[in-house]
């Protein structure tokens, strides 16, 4: 870390007087800038997922709306919509990452999205991955949900990927294609390569990219003391995002942290490097863009959850850009 950045981090840390509790899914790469921010704020020597600055526990937005001890939570926008439907105090305050998911098909089954008509597509129903599958097959292939069969499969974080995981299922031909977040899709590609099975990758970030956001609640943000701590943490996270998104790639220290801190990766730095280009470390909050995504996606979530879709005006209250603006003052 550059000396100037260390000094800036040190100055920010001094304004944090208590430990924030953050709920994040520890099995996804997207959460790791939060952990890097905590480690660097503590001089880079902290172990685990906690320090005097913040503690990260496994979870997400479901935790922050049910447990008042949780101050921040990170998740994909799908889960935020699911929780916001019944908990209008939820707020998106920062976008940590955007990930252009990949759909991988056996080339013998299809080399175009339209060619997947009548095929079996593996994913996890009700998740951002399932929404991605529907969107890319609709927007790129012109297919509706009734034109293919969705098959439930499991993620895989490390080889060998066992029976029931998407890489295993696609490599053995029990499904024709699979769409999921990383590193499952990279391991799917690796499994097909090892088996000598030709494959085709479908990816279009303009059709769908996961927006992995940091959330709080209106109650937490209305508390002057707690808000001050959250603002200070956003300053730390902003600096961490700059390093994650460096044009020359992540440092060895960041790759090592990700590989050792994401559940199931077992220190596999080669796998982290392989999936890094799929991730964009946003480090910002583009409210209009996020709102457009929420409005379109909530129509799908509402259908899956059998409820009425929320209006654009209602969804606009899910986004609070004032916290980041406050963190960047001066």
Describe the protein.
The chain has 14 helices and 11 strands. The chain has 330 residues and is α/β, with parallel strands linked by helices. The chain folds into 2 domains: 3-99 and 209-327, D-Maltodextrin-Binding Protein, domain 2, CATH 3.40.190.10; 102-202, D-Maltodextrin-Binding Protein, domain 2, CATH 3.40.190. Strand 6, helix 5 and strand 7 form a beta-alpha-beta unit. The radius of gyration is 20 Å and the shape is globular. The model is unreliable at 1-17 (pLDDT under 50).
Outline the secondary-structure elements.
Elements: H1 3-13, E1 20-24, H2 32-41, E2 54-58, H3 61-64, E3 72-76, H4 77-84, E4 90-99, E5 102-106, E6 120-123, H5 128-139, E7 149-152, H6 166-171, E8 177-180, H7 184-195, E9 199-202, E10 210-217, H8 218-222, H9 224-244, H10 252-261, H11 269-275, E11 279-280, H12 287-305, H13 312-316, H14 322-327
Parallel strand pairs: 1-2, 1-3, 6-7, 6-8
Antiparallel strand pairs: 3-10, 4-10, 4-11, 5-8, 5-9
- Going across the major beta sheet, what is the strand order? 2-1-3-10-4-11
Structural class: alpha/beta
What amount of the residues lies in strands? 15-25%
Based on Cα principal axes, name the global outline: globular
Report the major sheet. Answer: 6 strands, mixed
Based on the coordinates given, report the CATH architecture of the largest domain.
3-Layer(aba) Sandwich
Helix content: 40-55%
Q: Count the DSSP helices.
A: 14
Instruction: Tell me how many strands there are.
Output: 11
Q: Spans with pLDDT under 50 lasting ≥5 residues?
A: 1-17
Count structural domains. Answer: 2
- CATH level-four homologous superfamily name of the largest domain: Periplasmic binding protein-like II
In whole angstroms, how far apart are the ends? 22 Å
Helix-strand sequence: HEHEHEHEEEHEHEHEEHHHHEHHH
**CATH C-level category of the largest domain:** Alpha Beta
Radius of gyration computed on alpha carbons: 20 Å
Q: What kind of oligomer do you see?
A: single chain
CATH topology (fold) name of the largest domain:
D-Maltodextrin-Binding Protein, domain 2
